[in-house]
Write a structure and sequence with these properties.
single chain; alpha/beta; Rossmann fold; 5-stranded parallel β-sheet; about 45% helix; about 15% strand; binds pyridoxal-5'-phosphate
Amino acid sequence: MKYISTRGNAPKLAFDDVLLTGLARDGGLYLPETWPTFSSAEIAAMKDMSYTDVAVQVMLPFVEGAVSETDLRQIVEDTYGVFDGDDPAPLVKLGENEYVLELFHGPTLAFKDYALQFLGRMFDHILTKRGATLTIVGATSGDTGSAAIEACRDRENIEIFILHPEGKVSEVQRRQMTTVLSDNVHNIALKGNFDDCQNTVKALFADEEFRDAVHLSAVNSINWARIMGQVVYYFWAALKVGAPDAPVSFTVPTGNFGNVFAGYVANQMGLDINQFVVGSNANDILIRFIKSGRMQSKDVVETSSPSMDIQISSNFERFMFELLDRDSGALNNLMEEFKTTGQFTVSDAFLDRLKSKMDGERFNDEETAKLIGNIHAKTGYLLDTHSAIGVGAGRVRRWDQNVPMVALATAHPAKFPDAVEAASGVHPALPAFLSDLYEREERLHTLDNSYDHVKSYIETTLKGRNKL
Ligand SMILES: *Cc1c(COP(=O)(O)O)cnc(C)c1O
Protein backbone atom coordinates (compact mmCIF):
# COMPACT_ATOMS: atom_id res chain seq x y z
CA MET A 1 0.00 0.00 0.00
CA LYS A 2 1.31 3.43 -0.98
CA TYR A 3 0.16 6.78 0.38
CA ILE A 4 -0.40 10.05 -1.47
CA SER A 5 -0.69 13.64 -0.26
CA THR A 6 -3.95 15.60 -0.58
CA ARG A 7 -1.97 18.49 -2.13
CA GLY A 8 -0.54 16.25 -4.87
CA ASN A 9 3.02 17.47 -4.66
CA ALA A 10 4.83 15.19 -2.21
CA PRO A 11 6.49 11.81 -2.76
CA LYS A 12 4.36 8.66 -2.51
CA LEU A 13 5.36 6.85 0.66
CA ALA A 14 4.93 3.44 2.26
CA PHE A 15 3.18 3.12 5.64
CA ASP A 16 6.31 3.26 7.81
CA ASP A 17 7.50 6.51 6.22
CA VAL A 18 4.04 8.04 6.45
CA LEU A 19 3.98 7.17 10.14
CA LEU A 20 7.27 8.94 10.84
CA THR A 21 6.63 11.89 8.50
CA GLY A 22 3.23 13.10 9.77
CA LEU A 23 2.48 16.15 7.65
CA ALA A 24 3.43 15.77 3.97
CA ARG A 25 6.23 17.94 2.59
CA ASP A 26 3.77 19.89 0.41
CA GLY A 27 1.71 20.80 3.47
CA GLY A 28 -0.93 18.15 2.70
CA LEU A 29 -2.16 15.10 4.57
CA TYR A 30 -1.37 11.54 3.56
CA LEU A 31 -4.01 8.96 2.72
CA PRO A 32 -4.00 5.58 0.94
CA GLU A 33 -3.72 5.62 -2.83
CA THR A 34 -6.82 3.40 -2.98
CA TRP A 35 -9.28 2.22 -0.33
CA PRO A 36 -9.02 -1.46 0.50
CA THR A 37 -12.48 -3.07 0.54
CA PHE A 38 -14.22 -6.00 2.20
CA SER A 39 -17.07 -8.04 0.70
CA SER A 40 -20.23 -8.67 2.73
CA ALA A 41 -19.03 -12.22 3.36
CA GLU A 42 -15.72 -10.94 4.71
CA ILE A 43 -17.49 -8.51 7.02
CA ALA A 44 -19.89 -11.22 8.16
CA ALA A 45 -16.89 -13.40 9.04
CA MET A 46 -15.75 -10.73 11.55
CA LYS A 47 -18.92 -11.21 13.62
CA ASP A 48 -17.47 -13.81 15.95
CA MET A 49 -14.02 -12.28 16.16
CA SER A 50 -12.42 -10.60 19.19
CA TYR A 51 -11.61 -6.88 19.09
CA THR A 52 -7.95 -7.61 18.36
CA ASP A 53 -8.86 -9.97 15.51
CA VAL A 54 -11.11 -7.35 13.94
CA ALA A 55 -8.31 -4.79 14.40
CA VAL A 56 -5.77 -6.98 12.58
CA GLN A 57 -8.25 -7.69 9.81
CA VAL A 58 -9.12 -4.01 9.28
CA MET A 59 -5.58 -2.60 9.58
CA LEU A 60 -3.57 -5.22 7.69
CA PRO A 61 -4.24 -3.84 4.17
CA PHE A 62 -3.00 -0.40 5.31
CA VAL A 63 0.39 -1.62 6.57
CA GLU A 64 0.94 -4.12 3.76
CA GLY A 65 4.54 -4.06 2.54
CA ALA A 66 5.81 -2.30 5.66
CA VAL A 67 4.73 -4.41 8.66
CA SER A 68 4.15 -8.19 8.67
CA GLU A 69 0.88 -9.72 9.86
CA THR A 70 2.70 -11.39 12.78
CA ASP A 71 4.19 -8.08 13.92
CA LEU A 72 0.89 -6.24 13.46
CA ARG A 73 -0.92 -8.87 15.54
CA GLN A 74 1.65 -8.58 18.32
CA ILE A 75 1.35 -4.78 18.36
CA VAL A 76 -2.44 -4.90 18.35
CA GLU A 77 -2.55 -7.48 21.16
CA ASP A 78 -0.15 -5.38 23.29
CA THR A 79 -2.18 -2.25 22.55
CA TYR A 80 -5.65 -3.42 23.47
CA GLY A 81 -4.34 -5.71 26.22
CA VAL A 82 -3.76 -2.64 28.42
CA PHE A 83 -7.38 -1.50 28.14
CA ASP A 84 -9.66 -1.88 31.14
CA GLY A 85 -12.03 -4.89 31.08
CA ASP A 86 -12.55 -7.68 28.51
CA ASP A 87 -14.13 -5.58 25.78
CA PRO A 88 -12.07 -2.49 24.86
CA ALA A 89 -15.13 -0.81 23.29
CA PRO A 90 -18.43 -1.88 24.89
CA LEU A 91 -21.70 -0.98 23.19
CA VAL A 92 -24.44 0.11 25.59
CA LYS A 93 -28.11 0.41 24.69
CA LEU A 94 -29.50 3.81 25.60
CA GLY A 95 -32.97 3.62 24.03
CA GLU A 96 -34.91 2.28 21.05
CA ASN A 97 -32.37 1.93 18.23
CA GLU A 98 -30.00 4.19 20.14
CA TYR A 99 -26.61 3.05 21.42
CA VAL A 100 -23.51 4.46 23.10
CA LEU A 101 -20.11 3.12 22.08
CA GLU A 102 -17.89 3.59 25.14
CA LEU A 103 -14.49 4.67 23.89
CA PHE A 104 -13.08 5.58 27.28
CA HIS A 105 -11.63 2.33 28.59
CA GLY A 106 -8.02 3.15 27.71
CA PRO A 107 -5.36 4.40 30.16
CA THR A 108 -6.38 8.11 29.94
CA LEU A 109 -10.15 7.62 29.63
CA ALA A 110 -10.56 9.25 26.22
CA PHE A 111 -10.99 7.82 22.74
CA LYS A 112 -7.56 9.14 21.72
CA ASP A 113 -6.05 6.14 23.52
CA TYR A 114 -7.43 3.77 20.85
CA ALA A 115 -5.17 5.30 18.23
CA LEU A 116 -2.30 6.69 20.32
CA GLN A 117 -1.60 3.48 22.25
CA PHE A 118 -1.30 1.80 18.88
CA LEU A 119 0.80 4.63 17.45
CA GLY A 120 3.32 4.55 20.32
CA ARG A 121 3.90 0.83 19.83
CA MET A 122 4.07 1.17 16.06
CA PHE A 123 6.66 3.97 16.39
CA ASP A 124 8.68 1.76 18.72
CA HIS A 125 8.51 -1.18 16.29
CA ILE A 126 9.64 0.83 13.26
CA LEU A 127 12.35 2.74 15.16
CA THR A 128 13.79 -0.48 16.59
CA LYS A 129 13.88 -2.00 13.12
CA ARG A 130 15.76 1.04 11.83
CA GLY A 131 17.96 1.57 14.88
CA ALA A 132 16.64 5.13 15.12
CA THR A 133 15.38 7.45 17.87
CA LEU A 134 12.81 10.24 17.99
CA THR A 135 12.02 13.29 20.07
CA ILE A 136 8.34 14.03 20.27
CA VAL A 137 7.29 17.55 21.18
CA GLY A 138 3.68 18.59 21.51
CA ALA A 139 1.41 21.22 23.01
CA THR A 140 -1.78 20.27 24.79
CA SER A 141 -4.81 21.91 26.29
CA GLY A 142 -5.66 18.62 28.00
CA ASP A 143 -6.54 15.27 26.46
CA THR A 144 -3.98 14.78 23.71
CA GLY A 145 -1.01 15.34 26.00
CA SER A 146 -1.92 12.66 28.50
CA ALA A 147 -2.84 10.15 25.80
CA ALA A 148 0.47 10.80 24.01
CA ILE A 149 2.48 10.49 27.24
CA GLU A 150 0.80 7.20 28.16
CA ALA A 151 1.48 5.94 24.64
CA CYS A 152 5.20 6.80 24.68
CA ARG A 153 6.19 6.21 28.32
CA ASP A 154 9.11 3.85 28.88
CA ARG A 155 9.86 3.48 25.17
CA GLU A 156 13.63 3.53 24.81
CA ASN A 157 13.66 5.02 21.31
CA ILE A 158 11.44 7.97 22.20
CA GLU A 159 11.79 11.06 24.40
CA ILE A 160 8.56 12.98 24.80
CA PHE A 161 8.16 16.63 25.83
CA ILE A 162 4.64 17.95 26.35
CA LEU A 163 3.93 21.64 26.96
CA HIS A 164 0.78 22.65 28.79
CA PRO A 165 -0.27 26.15 29.87
CA GLU A 166 0.49 26.44 33.60
CA GLY A 167 -2.69 26.45 35.67
CA LYS A 168 -4.95 26.27 32.60
CA VAL A 169 -5.67 22.54 32.32
CA SER A 170 -7.99 20.71 34.71
CA GLU A 171 -6.48 18.94 37.71
CA VAL A 172 -7.41 15.48 36.36
CA GLN A 173 -5.82 16.30 33.04
CA ARG A 174 -2.65 17.73 34.60
CA ARG A 175 -2.24 14.79 36.95
CA GLN A 176 -2.75 12.29 34.14
CA MET A 177 0.36 13.81 32.56
CA THR A 178 2.55 14.76 35.52
CA THR A 179 2.16 11.57 37.56
CA VAL A 180 3.83 9.54 34.80
CA LEU A 181 7.34 9.42 36.27
CA SER A 182 9.04 7.53 33.42
CA ASP A 183 12.55 8.78 32.59
CA ASN A 184 11.65 9.52 28.96
CA VAL A 185 8.62 11.70 29.84
CA HIS A 186 9.13 15.45 30.30
CA ASN A 187 6.22 17.70 31.26
CA ILE A 188 6.66 21.42 30.76
CA ALA A 189 4.25 23.85 32.43
CA LEU A 190 4.64 27.01 30.38
CA LYS A 191 3.88 30.40 31.94
CA GLY A 192 1.46 31.36 29.18
CA ASN A 193 -1.71 30.16 27.46
CA PHE A 194 -2.34 27.30 25.03
CA ASP A 195 -1.52 29.46 22.00
CA ASP A 196 1.89 30.25 23.54
CA CYS A 197 2.51 26.52 23.93
CA GLN A 198 1.46 25.85 20.36
CA ASN A 199 3.55 28.71 18.98
CA THR A 200 6.61 27.46 20.83
CA VAL A 201 6.13 23.98 19.36
CA LYS A 202 5.65 25.43 15.88
CA ALA A 203 8.84 27.45 16.26
CA LEU A 204 10.76 24.34 17.30
CA PHE A 205 9.55 22.54 14.17
CA ALA A 206 10.51 25.54 12.03
CA ASP A 207 14.05 25.50 13.48
CA GLU A 208 15.56 23.12 10.93
CA GLU A 209 18.91 22.69 12.63
CA PHE A 210 17.23 21.78 15.90
CA ARG A 211 14.62 19.60 14.19
CA ASP A 212 17.24 17.50 12.44
CA ALA A 213 19.58 17.31 15.43
CA VAL A 214 16.95 15.87 17.77
CA HIS A 215 14.88 13.94 15.16
CA LEU A 216 11.77 15.90 15.99
CA SER A 217 8.39 14.30 15.43
CA ALA A 218 4.75 14.84 16.34
CA VAL A 219 1.81 12.68 17.28
CA ASN A 220 -0.94 15.11 16.30
CA SER A 221 -4.21 14.03 14.81
CA ILE A 222 -3.18 14.51 11.19
CA ASN A 223 -0.97 11.40 11.40
CA TRP A 224 -2.56 8.74 9.19
CA ALA A 225 -1.85 5.96 11.70
CA ARG A 226 -4.19 7.66 14.16
CA ILE A 227 -7.07 7.58 11.70
CA MET A 228 -6.32 3.94 10.95
CA GLY A 229 -6.47 2.97 14.62
CA GLN A 230 -9.95 4.50 14.84
CA VAL A 231 -11.51 2.73 11.85
CA VAL A 232 -11.62 -0.52 13.82
CA TYR A 233 -14.31 0.42 16.34
CA TYR A 234 -16.72 1.49 13.61
CA PHE A 235 -16.66 -2.09 12.34
CA TRP A 236 -16.80 -3.43 15.89
CA ALA A 237 -19.95 -1.46 16.74
CA ALA A 238 -21.68 -2.02 13.39
CA LEU A 239 -21.21 -5.80 13.64
CA LYS A 240 -23.09 -5.75 16.94
CA VAL A 241 -26.13 -3.95 15.53
CA GLY A 242 -26.64 -5.88 12.31
CA ALA A 243 -23.77 -5.37 9.83
CA PRO A 244 -23.34 -6.46 7.11
CA ASP A 245 -27.07 -7.22 6.69
CA ALA A 246 -28.39 -3.88 7.90
CA PRO A 247 -27.14 -0.29 7.82
CA VAL A 248 -26.05 1.72 10.84
CA SER A 249 -25.60 5.43 11.57
CA PHE A 250 -23.00 7.14 13.74
CA THR A 251 -23.01 10.39 15.66
CA VAL A 252 -19.63 11.82 16.62
CA PRO A 253 -18.64 14.75 18.86
CA THR A 254 -16.21 16.48 16.56
CA GLY A 255 -13.19 18.75 16.82
CA ASN A 256 -10.40 18.10 14.34
CA PHE A 257 -12.59 15.69 12.31
CA GLY A 258 -10.19 12.77 12.79
CA ASN A 259 -12.68 10.51 14.52
CA VAL A 260 -15.57 10.98 12.09
CA PHE A 261 -13.19 10.70 9.13
CA ALA A 262 -12.24 7.24 10.39
CA GLY A 263 -15.95 6.38 10.08
CA TYR A 264 -15.93 7.60 6.50
CA VAL A 265 -12.96 5.28 5.85
CA ALA A 266 -14.93 2.32 7.27
CA ASN A 267 -17.74 3.27 4.90
CA GLN A 268 -15.35 3.31 1.93
CA MET A 269 -14.05 -0.11 2.98
CA GLY A 270 -17.52 -1.59 2.54
CA LEU A 271 -19.35 -0.96 5.81
CA ASP A 272 -22.94 0.10 5.14
CA ILE A 273 -23.28 3.43 6.97
CA ASN A 274 -26.52 5.31 6.43
CA GLN A 275 -25.52 8.64 7.93
CA PHE A 276 -22.90 10.52 9.95
CA VAL A 277 -23.91 13.21 12.40
CA VAL A 278 -21.30 15.60 13.76
CA GLY A 279 -21.85 17.37 17.07
CA SER A 280 -20.19 20.67 17.96
CA ASN A 281 -20.08 23.04 20.90
CA ALA A 282 -20.13 26.83 20.45
CA ASN A 283 -17.07 26.44 18.19
CA ASP A 284 -19.35 25.45 15.34
CA ILE A 285 -17.32 26.06 12.16
CA LEU A 286 -18.36 22.67 10.71
CA ILE A 287 -22.04 23.10 11.45
CA ARG A 288 -22.04 26.50 9.77
CA PHE A 289 -20.22 24.95 6.81
CA ILE A 290 -22.77 22.14 6.42
CA LYS A 291 -25.58 24.73 6.47
CA SER A 292 -24.02 27.30 4.15
CA GLY A 293 -21.17 25.74 2.15
CA ARG A 294 -18.93 28.47 3.48
CA MET A 295 -15.92 27.64 5.66
CA GLN A 296 -15.08 30.60 7.85
CA SER A 297 -13.06 30.49 11.07
CA LYS A 298 -13.82 32.55 14.15
CA ASP A 299 -11.95 33.03 17.42
CA VAL A 300 -12.06 30.02 19.70
CA VAL A 301 -14.32 30.30 22.74
CA GLU A 302 -13.84 28.21 25.89
CA THR A 303 -16.57 25.67 26.57
CA SER A 304 -17.36 22.79 28.92
CA SER A 305 -16.20 20.40 26.17
CA PRO A 306 -12.62 21.71 25.77
CA SER A 307 -11.40 18.93 23.49
CA MET A 308 -13.64 20.34 20.77
CA ASP A 309 -12.58 23.97 21.23
CA ILE A 310 -11.02 24.39 17.80
CA GLN A 311 -10.85 27.08 15.18
CA ILE A 312 -10.56 24.81 12.17
CA SER A 313 -10.83 21.03 11.74
CA SER A 314 -7.45 20.01 10.33
CA ASN A 315 -8.57 16.55 9.18
CA PHE A 316 -11.45 17.98 7.17
CA GLU A 317 -8.94 18.40 4.34
CA ARG A 318 -8.93 14.64 3.81
CA PHE A 319 -12.71 14.58 3.48
CA MET A 320 -12.69 17.53 1.05
CA PHE A 321 -10.10 15.74 -1.07
CA GLU A 322 -12.47 12.78 -1.28
CA LEU A 323 -15.54 14.89 -2.06
CA LEU A 324 -13.53 16.60 -4.82
CA ASP A 325 -12.84 13.17 -6.36
CA ARG A 326 -9.22 13.53 -5.25
CA ASP A 327 -8.60 16.59 -7.41
CA SER A 328 -5.51 18.11 -5.73
CA GLY A 329 -5.65 21.19 -7.94
CA ALA A 330 -9.17 22.04 -6.80
CA LEU A 331 -8.20 21.40 -3.19
CA ASN A 332 -5.13 23.61 -3.45
CA ASN A 333 -7.29 26.44 -4.79
CA LEU A 334 -9.66 26.24 -1.82
CA MET A 335 -6.82 26.03 0.71
CA GLU A 336 -5.07 28.97 -0.93
CA GLU A 337 -8.29 31.00 -0.78
CA PHE A 338 -8.64 30.12 2.89
CA LYS A 339 -5.08 31.19 3.61
CA THR A 340 -5.44 34.58 1.98
CA THR A 341 -9.06 35.49 2.84
CA GLY A 342 -9.82 33.37 5.93
CA GLN A 343 -12.73 31.68 4.17
CA PHE A 344 -13.84 29.69 1.14
CA THR A 345 -17.14 28.60 -0.38
CA VAL A 346 -17.78 25.28 -2.12
CA SER A 347 -20.07 24.55 -5.07
CA ASP A 348 -23.68 23.40 -4.65
CA ALA A 349 -22.71 20.03 -6.12
CA PHE A 350 -20.01 19.61 -3.46
CA LEU A 351 -22.39 20.59 -0.69
CA ASP A 352 -25.13 18.22 -1.94
CA ARG A 353 -22.63 15.40 -1.93
CA LEU A 354 -21.57 16.21 1.61
CA LYS A 355 -25.18 16.46 2.78
CA SER A 356 -26.07 13.09 1.27
CA LYS A 357 -23.82 11.53 3.92
CA MET A 358 -23.57 13.98 6.78
CA ASP A 359 -25.56 16.27 9.03
CA GLY A 360 -24.71 18.15 12.20
CA GLU A 361 -25.89 20.17 15.17
CA ARG A 362 -24.35 22.49 17.75
CA PHE A 363 -25.05 22.74 21.48
CA ASN A 364 -23.93 25.50 23.82
CA ASP A 365 -22.82 24.73 27.38
CA GLU A 366 -26.27 25.25 28.86
CA GLU A 367 -27.90 22.92 26.33
CA THR A 368 -25.15 20.36 26.90
CA ALA A 369 -25.73 20.43 30.67
CA LYS A 370 -29.47 19.91 30.08
CA LEU A 371 -28.73 16.90 27.88
CA ILE A 372 -26.52 15.31 30.55
CA GLY A 373 -29.11 15.96 33.27
CA ASN A 374 -32.11 14.74 31.25
CA ILE A 375 -30.44 11.60 29.95
CA HIS A 376 -29.19 10.71 33.41
CA ALA A 377 -32.62 11.30 34.96
CA LYS A 378 -34.38 9.22 32.31
CA THR A 379 -31.96 6.31 31.82
CA GLY A 380 -29.48 6.43 34.71
CA TYR A 381 -26.65 6.70 32.18
CA LEU A 382 -24.04 9.39 32.82
CA LEU A 383 -22.42 11.04 29.79
CA ASP A 384 -19.48 13.42 29.73
CA THR A 385 -19.89 16.82 28.05
CA HIS A 386 -18.43 15.75 24.67
CA SER A 387 -20.37 12.50 24.46
CA ALA A 388 -23.62 14.25 25.41
CA ILE A 389 -23.24 16.57 22.43
CA GLY A 390 -22.90 13.54 20.18
CA VAL A 391 -26.02 11.89 21.57
CA GLY A 392 -27.98 15.15 21.36
CA ALA A 393 -26.94 15.79 17.77
CA GLY A 394 -27.87 12.24 16.78
CA ARG A 395 -31.34 12.72 18.21
CA VAL A 396 -32.21 15.92 16.40
CA ARG A 397 -30.49 15.14 13.11
CA ARG A 398 -31.20 11.47 12.44
CA TRP A 399 -32.82 10.71 9.09
CA ASP A 400 -34.24 7.24 9.71
CA GLN A 401 -35.58 6.06 13.08
CA ASN A 402 -35.32 2.45 11.92
CA VAL A 403 -31.56 2.59 11.47
CA PRO A 404 -29.64 2.09 14.72
CA MET A 405 -27.82 5.27 15.78
CA VAL A 406 -24.50 4.66 17.53
CA ALA A 407 -23.18 7.63 19.53
CA LEU A 408 -19.44 7.60 20.14
CA ALA A 409 -18.72 8.37 23.81
CA THR A 410 -15.30 9.96 23.55
CA ALA A 411 -14.48 10.57 27.22
CA HIS A 412 -15.28 9.12 30.63
CA PRO A 413 -17.52 11.43 32.71
CA ALA A 414 -14.87 11.49 35.47
CA LYS A 415 -12.53 13.37 33.14
CA PHE A 416 -14.81 16.39 33.41
CA PRO A 417 -16.18 15.92 36.93
CA ASP A 418 -17.22 19.50 37.67
CA ALA A 419 -19.33 20.03 34.55
CA VAL A 420 -20.88 16.57 34.84
CA GLU A 421 -21.74 17.00 38.52
CA ALA A 422 -23.22 20.45 37.95
CA ALA A 423 -25.42 19.03 35.19
CA SER A 424 -26.56 15.80 36.85
CA GLY A 425 -26.05 16.16 40.59
CA VAL A 426 -23.86 13.05 40.48
CA HIS A 427 -20.14 13.10 41.14
CA PRO A 428 -18.59 10.73 38.58
CA ALA A 429 -15.99 8.45 40.16
CA LEU A 430 -12.70 7.57 38.50
CA PRO A 431 -12.30 3.89 37.59
CA ALA A 432 -10.42 1.76 40.15
CA PHE A 433 -7.09 1.82 38.31
CA LEU A 434 -6.99 5.61 38.58
CA SER A 435 -8.65 6.03 41.97
CA ASP A 436 -5.41 7.14 43.67
CA LEU A 437 -4.62 9.73 40.97
CA TYR A 438 -4.98 12.61 43.43
CA GLU A 439 -2.41 11.09 45.81
CA ARG A 440 0.24 10.25 43.22
CA GLU A 441 3.56 12.10 43.03
CA GLU A 442 3.79 14.70 40.27
CA ARG A 443 6.83 15.78 38.25
CA LEU A 444 6.93 18.80 35.97
CA HIS A 445 9.19 21.70 34.99
CA THR A 446 7.81 25.20 35.00
CA LEU A 447 9.37 27.41 32.34
CA ASP A 448 8.97 31.03 31.28
CA ASN A 449 7.13 31.64 28.04
CA SER A 450 10.39 31.94 26.13
CA TYR A 451 11.42 30.00 23.07
CA ASP A 452 15.07 29.97 24.13
CA HIS A 453 14.30 28.59 27.58
CA VAL A 454 12.21 25.76 26.18
CA LYS A 455 14.73 24.91 23.51
CA SER A 456 17.67 24.85 25.91
CA TYR A 457 15.67 22.80 28.43
CA ILE A 458 15.00 20.20 25.76
CA GLU A 459 18.65 20.15 24.63
CA THR A 460 20.00 19.85 28.17
CA THR A 461 17.54 17.09 29.00
CA LEU A 462 18.38 15.13 25.84
CA LYS A 463 22.13 15.44 26.61
CA GLY A 464 21.47 14.11 30.11
CA ARG A 465 19.68 11.16 28.52
CA ASN A 466 22.54 10.54 26.06
CA LYS A 467 20.24 11.32 23.15
CA LEU A 468 22.12 14.38 21.89
C1 LIG B 1 -10.18 14.89 20.73
C2 LIG B 1 -11.55 14.75 21.27
C3 LIG B 1 -12.70 14.97 20.49
C4 LIG B 1 -12.61 15.45 19.05
O1 LIG B 1 -12.16 14.43 18.19
P1 LIG B 1 -11.65 14.80 16.70
O2 LIG B 1 -11.09 13.54 16.17
O3 LIG B 1 -10.61 15.86 16.89
O4 LIG B 1 -12.83 15.28 15.95
C5 LIG B 1 -13.94 14.74 21.06
N1 LIG B 1 -14.06 14.36 22.33
C6 LIG B 1 -13.00 14.14 23.13
C7 LIG B 1 -13.21 13.74 24.54
C8 LIG B 1 -11.70 14.31 22.64
O5 LIG B 1 -10.64 14.10 23.44
